[in-house]
Design a protein that fits this description.
Arc Repressor Mutant, subunit A; globular; Rossmann fold; 15 strands; transcription; 25% strand; WH_DNA-bd_sf; DNA-binding; 7-stranded parallel sheet
Length: 248
């Protein structure tokens, strides 16, 4: 495979997944890690990605359309597991994302619930449901359909939620949660503080990767609901940090 072909494939993986790891690329493309690092350096020069420890992340966040087709069966299964955690009359926060969109679909007929979200796609779904709907307003990130920024963060000061469901771009080897932008990190932190119970809901593709901005740690959530199976070493880290894992 020519260097240009290999780099095009890496760029496509970055576009769809949001991040890549050097070792995984070397194995899949059957080249040395040194070759992959040179490829990543070239793609960084072309402003396609940003290098990080052990790999690279997308320069621009993955679009909603790409996210919505990735690991869809896992997202539906995760949503089905989350639905029983919502009770009639609850006030709920739904973080922006395609996994939380599936959760919105799964809970939309629960009686007397109020949902706040910073996701325009979730809002579009719930406006035709019986749920009371509040938008966490702010600047719209058009590529993902989410709202963020100062006004969105400040709006959360006036609310308290019974339960919140959150997503993540990636979770690194230290079990720290990451997102692509600083604005998103601030909003996620503030929303989590306003939830009596908060669940991180992630499929297995999110583990072992690192995006740009740290949000918090798995231990900051009531539980982590996931299709992923942590390694024995990571399970020990999770147990030591009092991380509660719910496998789907």
């Amino acid at each position: 495979m020519l260097a240009a072909e290999r780099q095009a494939k890496i760029a496509e993986l970055i576009r769809v997944q949001g991040s890549v790891q050097v070792d995984d690329l070397a194995h899949d493309l059957k080249v040395s890690t040194m070759t992959i690092r040179r490829d990543l350096e070239k793609l960084q020069e072309d402003n396609i990605l940003e290098r990080c420890h052990g790999g690279a992340v997308a320069k621009q966040e993955v679009t909603y359309a790409d996210k919505s087709t990735s690991h869809m069966q896992d997202k539906v299964r995760l949503a089905a597991r989350c639905a029983p955690l919502v009770s009639a009359g609850d006030n709920i926060y739904l973080d922006a994302g395609t996994t939380t969109y599936e959760i919105a679909k799964a809970i939309q007929n629960v009686p007397d619930i109020m949902v706040m979200t910073n996701d325009l796609e979730i809002a579009g779904l719930l406006k035709n449901s019986q749920a009371e709907l509040l938008l966490c307003g702010g600047m719209v990130q058009k590529s993902t359909g989410s709202m963020l920024g100062y006004y969105a963060t400040q709006m959360l000061e006036d609310f308290r939620f019974d339960v919140g469901f959150f997503g993540a771009a990636s979770i690194n080897e230290e079990l720290e949660v990451f997102t692509p932008t600083v604005d998103k990190a601030f909003l996620k932190r503030k929303a989590l503080q306003r939830c009596r119970k908060a669940y991180l809901v992630v499929d297995e593709s999110k583990f072992g990767k690192q995006a740009v901005t740290k949000v918090n740690h798995l231990a900051d959530y009531t539980a982590v609901i996931t299709t992923g199976r942590l390694s024995a070493e990571d399970r020990k880290k999770a147990e030591k940090s009092d991380v509660r894992l719910i496998y789907v």
